[in-house]
Amino acid sequence: MERTKGNLTQIRAEVGRSWYMTGALLSFICLLFIWAMLSYSEYVNNTFLPTPSRVVALFIQMLQSPNLWSDIGISVYRVTMGFLLAAIIGIPLGILAGTFKFAEAAIQPVTEFIRYMPATAFIPLIMVWAGIGETAKILVIFVGTFFQMVLMVADNIRLVPEDLLSASYTLGATRFQVITKVLIPATLPNLMDTLRLMIGWAWTYLVVAEMVAATSGLGYSILKAQRFLKTDVIFVEILVIGILGLLTDRLFAFGNKRLFPWAQGGS
């Protein structure tokens, strides 16, 4: 039976952009309402849960300070470099693991083993190997995203239909041409989604990375505010990280839609 657009209870049915945006807006409103109810009623002490108006006022005030913009700049640099390093190494390894069984045997088991080790456990080793400078912070983000990226890229490669590869061989394509002209291009839309997911992981590891003897950055500011119970500052810094993460997510989503409209159902 054909799925009817606009039926809210139909499994995977399209509901229209207005319904989708309404649902998204309501979820944020509900979260804000719960926060306001708990803080304004002082059911939770304002020392531990500041009011929304207090956080917004401080956010506007901090936007006028060069310190916040400096922290944003250094944090964006660390996330970008850690993510790019993971992508530059992880994507080729993922393609190899997803294409050749011998490469899968060499790459995937050890990658699956290491990915269950928390990135925080590597911090002492990273400090011994790379010191306490920028390299160490970038490596923490790299470790937090690299192993997951390899496995997900390999899965993206395996999603390419076998019939497509067989048809390429039938038309006379060489093995190298099948990889470069068929396999990798067919993987690109899913690969973009994987990178979009991984940049989110990179942002979540930012605070962990900036525990490594940092003196700047959004994560460092959160840890410094925690020592003095400045929860309003913590809320602002978390809000800024969330906004930056959302912007990068939307950037990847926009790029995927523009570069691969056919994968999104477009023309």
Task: Describe the protein in words.
The chain is mainly α. The chain folds into two domains: 7-49; 52-264, MetI-like (MetI-like fold). It is 75% helix and 0% strand. The protein has eleven helices and no strands. It has helices at residues 17-40, 52-63, 66-99, 101-115, 123-130, 134-158, 162-170, 175-204, 206-209, 218-227, 231-259. Helix 3 runs parallel beside helix 6 (134-158), helix 3 runs antiparallel to helix 8 and helix 10 (218-227) packs antiparallel against helix 11 (231-259). The protein is globular. It starts with 16 loop residues before the first helix and ends in an 8-residue tail after the last helix. The model has no long low-confidence stretch (mean pLDDT 87).
What's the layout of helices and strands?
Elements: H1 17-40, H2 52-63, H3 66-99, H4 101-115, H5 123-130, H6 134-158, H7 162-170, H8 175-204, H9 206-209, H10 218-227, H11 231-259
Concise account of the structure shown:
With 267 residues, the chain is mostly helical.
- The CATH topology of the largest domain is given as MetI-like fold
**Which sequence of SSEs, written as H and E, runs from N to C?**
HHHHHHHHHHH
Q: Count the domains.
A: 2
Compute the number of helices.
Answer: 11
Structural class: mainly alpha
C-alpha geometry: globular
Oligomer: single chain
| Helical proportion, percent range | over 70%
| Rg | 23 Å
First-last Cα distance = 25 Å
**CATH architecture annotation of the largest domain:** Orthogonal Bundle
Strand content: under 5%
CATH superfamily of the largest domain: MetI-like
Strand runs, count: 0
Overall mean pLDDT: 87
Main sheet specs: none
Low-pLDDT ranges: none
